[in-house]
TrEMBL record:
One of its GO terms (biological process) is p-aminobenzoyl-glutamate transmembrane transport. Pfam families: ABG_transport. GO terms for molecular function: secondary active p-aminobenzoyl-glutamate transmembrane transporter activity. Keywords: Membrane, Transmembrane, Transmembrane helix. The chain crosses the membrane at residues 27-49, 80-99, 120-143, 211-229, 258-278, 290-314, 335-353, 373-394, 431-450, 462-487. Signal peptide: none annotated. InterPro entries: AbgT (IPR004697). The keyword Transmembrane applies. It comes from Paraliobacillus ryukyuensis. The lineage of its organism: Bacteria, Bacillati, Bacillota, Bacilli, Bacillales. This is Aminobenzoyl-glutamate transport protein.
């Protein structure tokens, strides 16, 4: 890319940032979107679609009515406290916040900086983001703020570190070296949808149906994420001029001792957690369905809280219970903006779900796909673009596939594409748009983290940072996908690309 082209691409991103930042604050934006959903539900009240696989009908629920008004008032509190990321973010941040306030994060950063090859930091951060999907959505809460701190400590722009981690976590839902709960959820939905066409084939669909492609994608997304961060995002951000500071001085003797004790406590805690995962919290089912796996947010809290507490006591930043309470209070105070944002975001997500507008859009999209008459690569491209569009209206990957699988899987099977391959194409489209849609449940979380370093940062700034990743991931994945199709490599063990009835 020439210097002139870089300048042109930067100008485009600057324009997107300017336009996006003209939008109201995230708190007000979600309030406006909530009102818009209410109005649209009134306009489209009575619109009905039919699931071609089951024959069930779905209609728009009208919130612009007496019963709708009653729902809005009666569920306002439930919509707030039921906002999925709220509890996970606050619990996790209690642990991370204590580790940060006591100085453990700063000390660990110093030790990392002086021992880790700086040239590998970006790649390591993106890779960690990808692999974090093992812990479901925990990566959204843990890695972006740590990425920002690491970059700031090295004199780099903290938002570049946050963006690299965010891109890795988002891309990680379509790539991983291991099987995750996402694989299990999508497999169940895919098999159920496939059974409407071929029940015998549906029974052969395994959790590992996309593993070959997903494992290879780890290398692809790590390389692309590193390149975009170092060559596009960070150069465009320039030198950080904000007030936040993360000094990188050599560790004092007290800090070294405290870090050693914190490390020992972390190791002991990790061993205890490992024992619980295979013992009392193992459960009777698979690991992905175990009580331990369902408790990962609390596990992460403990893994940060205990070392943070040990470090704080050793450096005498925590001398009594009042000191501990004060540090935890300061942590929650720093999240006040996010808590306010979660109120309007929770209302919007709940209204959109209650009205069924997302489901209607998904079914109409499926009708459009059938009407195009495309086949081969053209069909795959249209499917990807359509799924990306739908992702701007329905943020949850499993919720989307619950709606789309019964529609798209049979359609693609009738066109000789296997259910496993259809699921893979869906995961690619879903992953590349997660990082640029404000309707992603954790998007407000990332905005709140970013505002620690740029207090006036708006949605436009974050989207303009993430668009290069989205485009690079999309192009890279499509190229690899088409090569994969041309060669005919299975996308997973026993999971062919083509379906033959």
């Amino acid at each position: 890319m020439t210097k002139q082209k870089k300048k042109f691409s930067f100008r485009i991103l600057d324009g997107i940032e300017w336009l996006g930042n003209k939008l109201p604050s995230p708190f007000l934006l979600f309030a406006i979107l909530s009102l818009l959903v209410i109005i649209l539900s009134g306009i489209f009240a009575g619109v009905t679609v039919e699931n071609p696989s089951t024959g069930e009908t779905t209609s728009v629920t009208n919130l612009f009515s007496i019963s709708g008004l009653q729902y809005i008032f009666q569920h306002a509190v439930d919509n707030f406290v039921g906002f999925a990321p709220l509890g996970a973010v606050l619990v996790t941040m209690l642990g991370i916040g204590l580790a940060e306030k006591t100085g453990l994060v700063n000390a660990a950063l110093k030790a990392t900086v002086f021992s880790f090859p700086k040239r590998l930091l970006t790649a390591a951060l993106v890779f960690a983001g990808i692999m974090s999907s093992i812990a479901v959505n925990a990566g959204y809460v843990v890695l972006p703020p740590l990425g920002a701190v690491l970059f700031l400590g090295l004199g780099r722009h903290p938002l570049a570190g946050l963006a690299a981690a965010f891109a890795g976590v988002s891309g990680g839902f379509g790539a991983n070296l291991f099987l995750t709960s996402t694989d299990a959820i999508l497999q169940e939905l895919t098999a159920e949808a496939a059974s409407t066409i071929d029940p015998a084939y549906a029974e052969t669909i395994a959790v590992s149906m996309n593993w070959y492609f997903a494992a290879f994608s780890v290398l692809l997304i790590t390389a692309l994420g590193t390149w975009v961060t170092d060559k596009i995002v960070e150069p465009r951000l320039g030198k950080y001029q904000g007030e936040a500071d993360e000094s990188i001085d050599y560790l004092t003797a007290t800090e070294k001792k405290a870090l050693k004790y914190a490390g020992i406590s972390f190791l002991i805690t990790l061993i205890v957690m490992a024992y619980l995962s295979i013992g009392p919290l193992r459960g009777d089912g698979s690991y992905l369905d175990s009580p331990f796996f369902a408790s990962l947010v609390f596990v992460i809290f403990i893994l940060f809280f205990i070392p943070g507490l040990v470090y704080g006591i050793t450096v005498k930043k925590i001398t009594n219970d009042k000191d501990l309470t004060s540090l935890l209070g300061d942590t929650m105070a720093s999240m006040s903006g996010y808590i306010a944002l979660a109120f309007t975001a929770g209302q919007f997500i709940a209204y959109f779900r209650e009205t069924n507008l997302g489901t209607i859009i998904a079914y109409k999209g499926a009708d459009f796909l059938q009407s195009t008459g495309f086949d081969g690569f053209g069909l795959i491209l249209v499917f990807i673009l359509l799924t990306m569009l739908i992702n701007f209206f329905i943020g949850s990957s499993s919720a989307k596939w619950t709606i789309l699988a019964p529609v798209f899987v049979p359609i693609m099977m009738n066109l000789d594409y296997s259910p496993e391959f259809t699921t893979l194409v869906y995961r690619i489209a879903d992953s590349v748009t997660n990082m640029v849609t404000p309707l992603l449940l954790y998007f407000p979380v990332i905005v709140a983290f970013a505002q620690r370093y740029e207090k006036k940062l708006g949605i436009g700034t974050l989207i303009s940072m993430m668009i290069p990743y989205s485009i690079a991931f999309l192009i890279g994945w499509i190229i690899i996908l088409f090569i994969w199709m041309a060669i005919g490599i299975p996308v997973g063990p026993g999971a062919p690309i083509m379906y033959h009835q």
